[in-house]
Specification:
8 helices, mainly alpha
């Protein structure tokens, strides 16, 4: 159970693909013009990530090491094709909004990265929860960016009008540069929160947690503050 919770926490918070590892930036920048698009893309990627992780983990002793990457791509492409047909048949509006970025999930570095670094080395159950954690973290990142861009760029959230009638939308936020602005602001806020947790009550950095105690490296001027 501890390993399961660790994989969920790691994917959503500690190793968030969007805000920490900065992976999958292509769909992050392109489809987050609205919250619903970000949520749809995130959940689509989550389903594919879970299924591909489980399949690759189940076949990890069968797939030859020399062809593992092509094999991973075949597995991911199969699930992407299935999900693409399902979206086209049952959620055509979302399918039209995401467009070319659905088939591009095949080469999404998050999915291939988790297949190579985790699913190919761990059990099916742990790989499944790793996919859930990373997928939810990716969904959280895309949805958060989409909410901010839609709110300040269009005055709505999930299509609901939020801002007062006299509010003038900041149009640049729903354009390409807006994605960079919002992502930078959210990453800065997250980094500020993470750094504040590593700061002691007296305002000095907790060097012990960073492995600095007893270090003989004199290049860092902060080492002498340990005494």
């Amino acid at each position: 159970m501890n390993k399961v919770l660790e994989r969920l926490y790691s994917g959503i918070i500690k190793e968030n693909p969007t805000f920490v590892q900065m992976l999958g930036m292509c769909p992050t920048m392109a489809v987050t013009t609205s919250a619903i698009n970000g949520l749809g893309m995130g959940l689509t990627t989550t389903v594919i990530l879970i299924l591909s992780n489980m399949m690759i983990s189940a076949l990890r002793r069968v797939i030859p090491d020399k062809v593992r990457i092509p094999a991973y791509i075949v597995v991911v492409a199969s699930f992407v094709t299935i999900i693409q047909f399902l979206l086209e048949g049952f959620v055509p509006s979302l399918y039209d909004s995401l467009g070319i970025y659905i088939p591009l999930i095949v080469v999404n570095c998050i999915i291939l990265g988790r297949a190579e670094s985790y699913a190919s080395r761990h059990s099916v159950v742990l790989s499944m929860f790793d996919g859930i954690g990373m997928g939810l973290g990716f969904t959280l990142g895309l949805t958060s960016i989409g909410i901010f861009r839609e709110l300040f760029g269009n005055g709505t959230v999930f299509g609901w009008h939020i801002m007062p009638e006299r509010y003038e939308p900041v149009t640049i936020l729903i354009l390409a540069p807006g994605a960079f602005f919002v992502l930078a602001c959210l990453v800065a806020v997250q980094n500020k929160v993470r750094l504040s947790r590593k700061t002691g009550a007296d305002g000095t950095d907790c060097k012990r947690e960073q492995g600095c105690e007893g270090c003989s490296n004199t290049l860092c001027g902060g080492r002498k503050t340990m005494n």
